[in-house]
Design goal:
Structural class of chain A: mainly alpha
Strand content of chain B: under 5%
Strand content of chain A: under 5%
Helix content of chain B: 55-70%
Distance between the termini of chain A: 41 Å
Number of domains of chain B: 1
CATH class of chain B: Mainly Alpha
Structural class of chain B: mainly alpha
Largest sheet of chain B: 2 strands, antiparallel
Oligomer: heterodimer
Radius of gyration of chain A: 19 Å
């Protein structure tokens, strides 16, 4: 019995990280209808940037993380404004191909600069600390922190979209990017801001991910798939849905890993396909 | 108020297309004769080119004509390879016979897969097909009698002399390429092909004109799956060794995307040109390893942003050439034969890439 509880708990903790990966994707697709195939590679890129900050420039971790967030905000704005704005249209092909090209470029540049070895971020032992529960279950502190951060991020995104002028601009631009200019909203700047926020989320996710596992340059595509699956399982258009989708994916993978290490990721994919077959709108879709 | 009667003709072939057909026939004869005078490397190269070309043609059919962008076609490439291997190693069939059978198997598998994949649209359809590809890869990697993650070898050629095997592989490759190009061209010329172009331009409008969008989409998806499986079966007949990571790698689709975008999306000539360019780049620059891939990715980005029509698209618009003419054009007979400019203008105005409803 305790092993089932353990699987579910570990699945929730794993899923929280996937949900955090997915938040940026949910935001970008919701506002801009942009399919960013390089989403996972951006996460990996920022892990390596953080690694470079801490290991090569010897910036302490507590300073490097905020610095990374600032860099990410700027980079997101730049990428969207300079490159992706040209291809954020109704036709999915250009954005797909451009981000696919970016994915290849990022993976290979990282491999050139950092070599293909997996790296992780040194946290002085924090990554292996855990909180014991009765029944022999141990909850890692880093995964618990990830869960907390993800919940905060979801709340923040929900609040931004529902209560702030920026959120209204996002929703309006997503509805009709031509008409919104009549209201004095610049779609290009709005898209760039959306991408910046998505990059901030990516930076936070990268930090937690890099502390948790060793990351190699080719990890990006797998992360993209997890993020995407979390969004679909949870239902498009809802951040809490994405959160739930991430948790569901994490639990499915944990069950798979428990049955056989080779089938862990496979079971996650199968859950995704099952949801797509039986309930394609996801568990918690937002109507309209 | 000149109401003089004008003589005109509706033609499909252009001068460029007649030249092209002749050149292609000559090229086919040359390729068919390769086993008699060329080295083993050349034979291997052609089989590889053939696999890339057919994959690109099928991806172009799906995305450029069908409007469905998929990053998961490698699933059928792998299915083609593994089905061929199973039929040949365990079924006792000749691998050359097994390749087309594997294509049929892939088309059959594509039917239920399409039921799932078609629930998604646009960019999410693309990533969804990628997930499906991954499911196939992981499933096969966990099956130990297929060699698991490290793959297995094609043993059905034991006892066959190497030169015979290589010659037959080359001829099979040539036949597959010719069939793919030929059948695609015939299809695109037909009423169904015109419906496809209409569907790509605007599915709702096409539906209102009587085009059955659902069935056409499914048909295109199945054809693309079968064709991709042909390429996969062929590739692994030439390679003799298969593994899940090689067979189901997303890089196949990545290269197909680059080939088609650089060559010209939604044209028949584009993938052919794109494959030649890609192969040449591969031959001469792949020693640079990661930098070569960085360059390829950057090239794809630049081409998509600034030359979305690709090389052939640009050439075709600029000069009005069509090597595989799909549209008919009007030729005014009372124009002097030397004023080819008039013919070119008419061709461009009625070219198949014009965004309008199908014209008779």
């Amino acid at each position: 019995m305790s092993s089932i509880v353990n699987i579910v708990l570990q699945g929730v903790l794993l899923g929280a990280l996937y949900a955090l990966f997915a938040m940026g994707q949910s935001l970008v697709f919701g506002v801009m209808r942009l399919t960013n195939t390089a989403h996972g590679d951006f996460i990996v890129l920022l892990v390596f940037v953080l690694f470079a900050l801490t290991n090569w420039l010897h910036v302490p971790l507590w300073a490097a993380v905020p610095l990374l967030v600032v860099i990410a905000f700027g980079a997101g704005y730049a990428v969207q404004f300079a490159v992706l704005n040209r291809v954020s249209g109704r036709d999915p092909l250009p954005s797909l191909v451009v981000t696919f090209g970016l994915s290849i470029v990022i993976q290979n540049l990282l491999q050139e600069v950092f070599s293909a070895d997996p790296r992780s971020l040194a946290t002085g032992g924090f990554e292996s600390m855990s909180f014991p529960l009765p029944g022999g279950i141990a909850l890692g502190l880093l995964p618990l922190l990830t869960l907390a951060v993800t919940i905060v991020a979801t709340l923040a995104l929900q609040w931004i979209f529902a209560r702030t002028p920026l959120g209204r601009a996002f929703r309006a631009t997503s509805d009709d990017r031509e008409i919104v200019q009549l209201m004095g909203v610049s779609p290009r700047r709005t898209f760039a801001l959306a991408m910046s926020i998505a990059f901030v989320l990516i930076a936070i996710a990268a930090t937690l991910y890099g502390m948790r596992t060793a990351v190699s340059p080719s990890d990006g595509p797998a992360l993209l798939l997890y993020a995407f699956e979390a969004v679909i399982i949870g239902g498009m258009g809802s951040f809490w849905g994405t959160f739930a989708g991430g948790l569901a994916l994490g639990i499915a993978q944990q069950i798979g890993f428990y049955l056989d290490p080779g089938w862990g990721i496979w079971l996650g994919h199968v859950l995704f396909l099952a949801v797509l077959t039986v309930r394609p709108q996801g568990f918690f879709p937002k109507t309209a | 108020m000149n109401m003089r009667e004008r003589g005109f003709e509706v033609r499909r072939a252009t001068r460029a297309s007649r030249v092209a057909v002749l050149l292609l026939l000559i090229a086919a004869v040359i390729v068919a004769s390769l086993p008699y005078w060329a080295g083993r490397d050349t034979l291997r190269d052609f089989t590889q080119i053939a696999a890339y070309l057919v994959f690109a043609l099928m991806w172009n059919l799906l995305a450029g004509y069908g409007g469905m962008v998929s990053i998961g076609q490698q699933a059928y490439f792998g299915i083609g390879g593994y089905a061929m291997l199973i039929l040949a190693n365990y079924g006792g069939l000749s691998p050359f016979i097994a390749v087309p059978i594997a294509a049929v198997i892939a088309a059959v598998i594509a039917v239920p897969v399409s039921r799932i994949a078609f629930r998604l649209e646009g960019g999410y359809f693309a990533i969804g097909t990628w997930v499906i590809g991954e499911v196939f890869r992981l499933s096969v990697a966990n099956v130990s009698w297929l060699g698991g993650g490290s793959g297995t070898s094609l043993t059905a050629f034991q006892g066959v002399p190497r030169s015979l095997r290589e010659s037959l592989t080359l001829w099979t490759a040539l036949v597959i390429v010719a069939a793919a190009i030929g059948l695609l061209y015939l299809f695109l010329r037909s009423k169904r092909g015109l419906a496809l172009t209409a569907m790509r331009d605007n599915a709702v409008a096409a539906n209102s004109q009587g085009v059955d969008v659902e069935r056409t989409r499914l048909l295109v998806y199945l054809v693309s799956a079968a064709g991709t499986a042909l390429a996969g079966g062929l590739y692994f007949v030439g390679n003799l060794r298969i593994s899940p990571d090689a067979a189901f790698s997303v890089n196949w689709t990545a290269f197909a995307i680059f080939i088609v975008m650089i060559g010209g999306l939604g044209t028949l000539e584009g993938p052919i040109i794109g494959t030649l360019i890609f192969f040449l780049l591969n031959k001469f620059l792949s020693d640079f390893g990661t930098w070569y891939l960085v360059g390829l990715g950057a090239l794809a980005i630049v081409v998509t942003m600034f030359f979305p029509q690709g090389i052939w698209g640009y050439v075709s618009r600029r000069f009005g050439w069509q090597l595989f003419p799909v549209a008919r054009h009007v030729v005014f007979l009372d124009r002097a034969p030397s004023s080819t400019r008039g013919e070119v203008i008419d061709t461009i105005q009625s070219a198949h890439s014009a965004p309008s409803a199908p014209h008779p």
